[in-house]
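Treating backbone geometry as a discrete language has practical consequences that deserve illustration. The amino acid sequence and the backbone structure tokens for this protein are reproduced below.
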Amino acid sequence: MKKPAKKPSAPKVTKAVKAPAKKAGAPAKKKSAATTEPPATFISAQIDIGFGNHLTIRGSGPGLSWDTGVVMDNVGANLWTVTLLDATKPITFKILVNDLSWSTGADYVVAPGKSVTIFPTF
């Protein structure tokens, strides 16, 4: 007598095994205080200079020159601002109307990373 033929066995199903998670590398190094950027310096001027005019700032400091003014932002009816980055020394400056008329009095000075509000006269 012949033995009955064996049924082919079903293929074995194996679950995929996830590889263990890789260990995180060394934590990122924080920048030392010596390599961080200096804080921004904020200069505001409160004055009504009339419709259609603008204020500029000239001086010595990052982005400033005594020869050509940087236009300040008009953020309110009588408020003008400028933000200077990367100052490491005190900033000396003057305000001008339309980059033509200089404010009267002595030059203004602000320490790096500080905020100052001035009330210029012309």
